[in-house]
Amino acid sequence: MASATTAQSSRPTATHQGGSEPVPAGLYLLLAAGAGLSVASLYYSQPMLGVMGTNLGASDTAVGFVPTLNQLGYALGILLLTPLGDRFDRRRIILIKAALLSGALLLGSLAPDILPLLAVSFAVGLTATLAQDIVPAAATLAPEKQRGKVVGTVMTGLLLGILLSRVISGVVAEHFGWRTMYMLAAASVALIGVVAWRGLPRFRPASTLTYGALLGSLSTLWRTHGALRRAALAQGLLSVGFSAFWSTLAVMLHGAPFHLGSAAAGAFGLAGAAGALGAPVAGRISDRLGPAVVTRLGAGLTAISFATMLAAPWLEPGSRLWLIAASAIGFDLGVQMTLVAHQTLVFGLEPSARSRLNAVLFTGVFTGMSLGAASGSLLLARWGWEAVTLLATASALAALLVRLWPGARTTH
After folding, report:
1. DSSP letters along 320-374, please?
2. Are 39 and 128 within 8 A, CB to CB?
């Protein structure tokens, strides 16, 4: 016990200015893997919904609330928990959330019916905000000249976690069952927690504000910055369509005329990855033309991509699948382009409040995600896939309108 105490006391402490030494490659990998595996917990369920509903004897509408509560929990976690990173040792927060997330996923694997699984889904969303603690931790650890590279590496891990989680869970559920996927997810997060306990330094708090004052400052930022309000609203609207598509795709493909399993549904995540990984181009366009232009380009591309799926009823099943895959490439690229540009705009407003600005932006994003998952499952059950496509197209057009509205067509 004394040796453990000594090890803890000798662990280096990171200040908010970052260190002077380059960040070790192993720490890159830890932070990127931690961000990816934690945020992936929100998306493992999506390709498995058809299988989960059958196994648990739950209706399509009931099982559709699994991703809804994931996203709602994540939105509330970002709003209520992420600001704590400015006030307390971020390493401790990361370790606590890793333990809680791993435990929630393990409970999910043991759920006897749909109601406990829904409760677990909300808890998974709350604790998966671990990803939003890891990204600012990376920025804090990195020296000034290395910060962009470090944060970019971690964001790549986060993005891959979102996109590849569907592919992995689809394959695992197809061959080993959905409960096995939850167990593997719990083990992966637990492993990240152990490695973080050994490898992460302590972080010196950047603020002495009380918890109430931290939360109060979020509303002050919201009232003060019109650019923040526009960014959160536009990105939230894009998230409605994005989430409605991904949270209903597996259920739609499970039924007629496709009758495809969870592995096929998960494979569509590869199409999304192909599109979203092209999003770094948005940074170069932002440098030349300004991020406001990129927000309009991204929202427009998203709207067009969703609208093309309205032609699906007139195509044979094989051609319809190709159309859906092509649309997924387009709208994933559009959504990620717009997010990169919105983050560029928001982080430039008040550099000293970047964590809280990020919390406000992502609260909008995941509120849209939860609304999209809920409305998408209801529309699919009542009116079919065409209604989901109409919702996605309308929400993307609304986001484009927000970016084109007078006062938004500036650098903000």
Report:
1. HHHHHHHHHHHHHHHHHHHHHHHHHHHHTT-GGGHHHHHHHHHHHHHHHHHHHHH
2. yes
Q: Which of 247, 294, 298, 240 is nearest to 269 (CA)?
A: 247
Angle value at C-alpha 160, between 266 and 244, nearest 5 degrees? 50
- Quote the Cα angle for 333-338-339, to 5°: 100
**Whether 228 contacts 360, CB under 8 Å:** yes
Question: Residue 273 CB: number of other CB atoms within 10 A?
Answer: 20
**Nearest alpha carbon to residue 393 among 242, 275, 248:** 242
Helix (H) or strand (E) holding 14: strand 13-14
Task: Please report which helix (H) or strand (E) contains residue 228, including its range.
Answer: helix 226-254
Are 362 and 236 spatial neighbours (Cβ–Cβ below 8 Å)? no
- Judge whether residue 195 has pLDDT over 50: yes
Write the pLDDT tens digit of every residue in 93-151. Answer: 999 999 999 999 999 999 999 999 999 999 999 999 998 888 778 777 777 665 556 66
Residue 411 corresponds to which tokens in the numbers above? 């650098």
